[in-house]
Amino acid sequence: MATAKPIARSGPKSRWKLRLALLLAVIAFAAAVWFWQPLRAYALTGASYGARVACSCRYVEGRPLGSCRDDFEPGMGLVHLSEDDQARSVTATFPLLSRQTAVFREGEGCVLERWEN
């Protein structure tokens, strides 16, 4: 006669861990949603500031792009700069969140491109 093995059920500790993991996932998701807009706004502001300052440094003052980082405010280490000599523009990127370009225009200086909403 064959005996059936009892089905292993998860104990109270296992259910408690699952509930805790689910609660933490919900809290993390809510925090990401809550902070997304302010974080994106700060990134857009930082990228815009970086593009404008670096464009002025590069095309108004004539300094190399590498030295333009010296003009940044503290805490702008994540902003990456790239230039387009042909268009006389500098693009500042805040990884995964924002990108902004400033273009040098004769008589106006460096002007930011329009923001996309």
TrEMBL record:
From which domain of life does this come?
Bacteria
Protein's name in the database: Uncharacterized protein
Species assigned in the record: Novosphingobium anseongense
Q: What is the lineage of its organism?
A: Bacteria, Pseudomonadati, Pseudomonadota, Alphaproteobacteria, Sphingomonadales
